[in-house]
Amino acid sequence: MNRIAAAMAFAGLLTVAAPAAWADQPGADWMPAAQVKEKLMGLGYTSITAFEADDGHWEGEGMKNGKKMQFHADPKTGAIMSEKPDH
């Protein structure tokens, strides 16, 4: 009985953990990274120093108006969802 319970618990962990790991990969319907970066440059970023898929959106750092900024961008449109100075 303990083996069955342990196997079921392990299977449950795999079910919960797997989607979390996939959240750090761009979805099939996401705007390509290069296009998002181009859009960000058009919105005032002069450089993008970090950029990755994270928790269901694009996330990164770059320079805007002479300040180092952190941003989150919509995965499908590339629109800035949030940005703040990176201290």
Biggest sheet strand line-up: 1-2-3-4
Low-confidence stretches: 6-18
What amount of the residues lies in strands? 35-45%
CATH architect. name of the domain at 33-85: Roll
Name of the top-level CATH class of the domain at 33-85: Alpha Beta
Biggest sheet layout: 4 strands, antiparallel
Helix content: 25-40%
Protein name: PepSY domain-containing protein
Domain PepSY: 8-84
Keywords: Signal
InterPro entries: PepSY
Short description:
Residues 1-23 form the signal peptide. This protein is of the alpha+beta class and 87 residues long.
Could you characterize the architecture of this molecule?
There is one protein chain. The chain is an alpha+beta fold and 87 residues long. The protein has a domain at 33-85: Nuclear Transport Factor 2, Chain: A (Roll), CATH 3.10.450. It has helices at 2-22, 33-42; strands at 45-54, 57-64, 67-73, 80-85. Strands 1-2-3-4 form a 4-stranded antiparallel β-sheet, with helices on one face. Mean pLDDT is 84; it is low at 6-18. Keywords: Signal. Residues 1-23 form the signal peptide. This is PepSY domain-containing protein. Residues 61-87 are annotated as: Disordered.
